[in-house]
Amino acid sequence: MPSRTGILLLVSGPSGSGKTTLCRRLADDREAHYSISCTTRPTRPGEVHGRDYFFLSREEFDQKVACGDFLEYATVHGNSYGTLKSEVLQFIQKGIDVVMDIDVQGAAQVRSCTDPEIRRSLTDLFVMPPTDEELAARLTGRKTDSEEVIALRLKNAIEEMAHWHEYQYRLISATREEDYIRFKALLLAERLRVSRITATSESAS
Ligand code: 5GP
Prior knowledge:
The protein has helices at about 20-30, 60-65, 90-95, 105-110, 115-120, 130-140, 145-160, 175-190, 200-205, and strands at about 10, 35, 40, 55, 70-75, 80-85, 100, 120-130, 170. By secondary structure, the chain is of the alpha/beta class. Helix 6 (about 130-140) packs antiparallel against helix 7 (about 145-160). Guanosine-5'-monophosphate (5GP) binds next to strand 5, strand 6 and helix 4.
């Protein structure tokens, strides 16, 4: 039996906030499992099925919805995205922390989930760039998307930023290194929560 249950760390923020990089780095450092989402959006150059996303057809995605395979799913920038239960539950039960890159709608769905294991594991963070100008600069600097896609992402980003107060934690992005230090500090502190130290507290009583 693990000495504590795993943390489910939801990370949201507009495109260009650097949240994906933070989540990936935590997983690369073996601090957490990165929950690989399903999406119907087309693959970007360099992306790999099963590493970046599970890239599904509309039919495949709808089939998983019908089978109840998703913990949450939402439409973002015109495409469907969803978190598989299998990417989360088995890890937190084993005491392995899970980090998840998720939009504000998906985060709200997970927060309203009644499963006690999910509720106990949950913590959430909103990552945002320091200014709207910086956000626009970061989005335009991304060479992988068309102008049309960038314009849509900028509009959505500004709408998404209005939701930061729904989260327990907020990180205003500075440098990559500083952001990562603060991000990891959040996870390390969450590991000390008494409510998660199940096995040890039971044996101590
Ligand atoms: P991108 O297409 O740039 O990789 O991601 C677009 C948006 O989809 C980001 O805001 C990201 O957080 C969100 N996203 C990625 N995976 C999921 C997921 O499984 N569920 C939800 N609701 N949003 C997701």
